[in-house]
């Protein structure tokens, strides 16, 4: 095979690299990859809390959500949104979003499992779907790379 043919036909590893490059360039897909990892942490934790520890599904869901927060913050900040802001600028709004998401998590799980009789895993899937939409839109604002105004910059120092 000539060099020209080799460049035109990248082979299996070349195609895999091209596919990975495409996936990592599309922010929504990167968000899904990090969310998938966070979701796996959540599912393992909700299983442990609800099935092995005997905690109610609503509380187990909220605790499991908390267990996934650190990995999600770092993944979304560094990989998905590629934020160059200092973490202290983003952690406050991110944790506020997570507080809202914890409430959504417990409420969604409680309604699906306790009120509608769905299995815990179906409730967990409902939680992940609902929170994914809310989180993506909110994190796009939180992790935007525009400079944030501080009280010193705005002349508001007291």
List the helices and strands in order. HHHHHH
Estimate the mean pLDDT confidence: 82
Distance between the termini: 72 Å
Using only CA atoms, what is the Rg? Answer: 20 Å
Overall, the morphology is globular
Note the main sheet: none
Residue fraction in strands = under 5%
Task: Give me the secondary-structure topology.
Elements: H1 3-8, H2 11-25, H3 27-52, H4 57-80, H5 87-115, H6 120-142
Which short descriptors sum up this protein?
158 residues, 6 helices, globular, disordered C terminus
Question: What does this 3D model show about the protein?
Answer:
The structure is a single chain. By secondary structure, the protein is mostly helical. The chain has one domain. The protein has 6 helices and no strands. Helix 3 runs antiparallel to helix 4. The longest helix has 29 residues. The protein is globular, with a radius of gyration of 20 Å.
């Amino acid at each position: 095979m000539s060099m020209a043919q080799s460049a035109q036909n990248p082979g299996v590893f070349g195609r895999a690299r091209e596919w990975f490059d495409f996936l990592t360039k599309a922010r929504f897909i990167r968000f899904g990859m990090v969310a998938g990892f966070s979701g796996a942490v959540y599912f393992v934790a909700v299983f442990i809390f609800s099935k092995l520890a005997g905690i109610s599904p609503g509380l187990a869901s909220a605790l499991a959500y908390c267990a996934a927060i650190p990995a999600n913050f770092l993944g979304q900040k560094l990989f998905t949104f590629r934020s160059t802001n200092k973490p202290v600028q983003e952690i406050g709004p991110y944790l506020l979003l997570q507080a809202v998401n914890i409430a959504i998590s417990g409420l969604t799980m409680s309604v699906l499992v306790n009120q509608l009789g769905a299995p815990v895993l179906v409730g967990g899937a409902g939680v992940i779907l609902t929170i994914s939409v809310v989180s993506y839109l909110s994190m796009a604002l939180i992790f935007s790379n525009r400079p944030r105004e501080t009280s010193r910059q705005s002349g508001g120092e007291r």
